[in-house]
Amino acid sequence: MNRTLVVAFWRQRFMSPFRMAFLLFIVGVPLLITAAMPQAGFSIAGKLTGVALVFAIGIIGQDLSSGVLQLLFARPVRRSEYVLSRWFAAGSMSAVIGVGQAALVVLIMTVRGAAPGAPEALTFVGERLFEGFGIAAVFVLLSTLVNGVGDVALWIGVQFVCGIGGMLAQAKGWTWLARAAGELSGSMNPNLPIAQIAGGLAPWAPASAYLSTVTLCLALAVLVMNRRELSYASSNG
User: Fold this and answer.
1) Which residue, 204, 207, 89, is CA-closest to 137?
2) Tell me: the pLDDT tens digits for 22-40?
3) How many C-beta atoms surround the C-beta of residue 135 within 10 A?
4) Of 48, 147, 168, 231, which is the most exposed, with the fewest CB atoms less than 10 Å away?
5) Cα 225 from chain centre
6) What would the pLDDT profile of 154-206 be if each residue is shown by its tens digit?
7) How many domains does the chain have?
């Protein structure tokens, strides 16, 4: 990891008014609803996807389209170091915000007389922590393939195709297609189901799936970046 790259990414994201406004909305609204309906538990806060998208969209593609990478790689910065630093920066921001929101949800539920059990609360917090790094890894890969914020279009497109594939599989009774669509959709939203692992139901399977997805995404992202041609002449004018 490169500390300078990580801090620069944090600063860049927090200085974006649009991203911060959207972040405030997706973090604040579930808290207000939880305060009104504490008995709903953690279902209101749900997944960390929205928070992760705030930080992950355009994670590399925006640098590709702006010409920043030509200047950056003219310095002694390895492309693998850049990719991993981007992933850690976005994943850590998502995880911190997600865990903070989860802690506030627990606090609100407790104050409102619907305190969750400690195992349930820890499971919810832990799953959000890993989910932030998982989605960041997926977007690191997608963002190496397209410029700007086209990564989110790719992500939505894959989800759409998986949905169509799932419906077709159900209509035709094709279990192989249903399984393939489910696996691909799950790889777009990697998470670590701590509750399932703690329950002892094939505990290593979900952990292996999560780690393999994150590792594969990062490895492919590094490979793509190492093979990408950057025009230094165009960036210099």
Assistant:
1) 89
2) 999 999 998 999 888 888 8
3) 28
4) 231
5) 19
6) 999 999 998 999 899 888 888 888 888 888 888 888 888 877 776 666 667 77
7) 1
Instruction: Please say whether the dihedral angle defined by the alpha carbons of residues 27, 31, 32 and 34, taken in this order, is positive or negative.
Output: positive
Q: Does pLDDT of 225 surpass 70?
A: yes
212 C-beta neighbours (distance < 10 Å), count:
12
Phi, then psi, of 134 in degrees rounded to 5: -65, -50
Which amino acid type is present at position 55?
A: F
**Dist. CA 158–CA 23, nearest whole Å:** 24
Range(s) of the domain holding residue 204: 3-235
Cα separation, 232 vs 221, in Å, equals 21
The number of residues in the chain equals: 237
Residue 196, token pair as written in the block: 């399932």
H helix count then E strand count, the chain: 12, 0
pTM score: 0.86
